[in-house]
Amino acid sequence: MNRETVQLFIDSWTSSWTLVLGLGYLGRKLYWPGLAALCSDVAVHAMLLTSGAVVFVFCLDGFAPAGLTVSGWAIGMVLIRRTIFAAD
Is-above-0.70 flag for pTM? Predict the structure, then answer.
């Protein structure tokens, strides 16, 4: 892997999960249960577990800053989700 490939992966990973969680939030606001499932606790746990695996692989391959970026993004998404859902 080279640096450009890692950067493209990080961008696509974070964008995809942000879109999934955002659509889930929109489904929750529109009372659309099928779409709201994308922002359920199960989906967020799946995002955290898979992001943890990505961070682990990046650290093993010598791209620790990339792992730090993904882990920081995941923590930020969970904090934003908790803040938004606490206001509901």
Answer: yes
Which of the 8 DSSP states describes residue 30? T
Give the type of residue at 15: S
| 4-61 confidence digits (pLDDT tens) | 999 999 999 999 999 999 999 999 999 999 999 999 999 999 999 999 999 999 999 9
Q: Hey, what long-range contacts does 5-10 have (CB within 8 A, 24 or more apart)?
A: 6/58, 6/63, 6/66, 7/66, 10/66, 10/69, 10/70
Structure tokens, 67: 């792992």
Neighbours of 37 (CB within 10 A): 13
| Domains in the chain: boundaries | 3-87
Helix (H, G, I), strand (E, B) or coil at 77: helix
SS3 assignment, position 32: coil
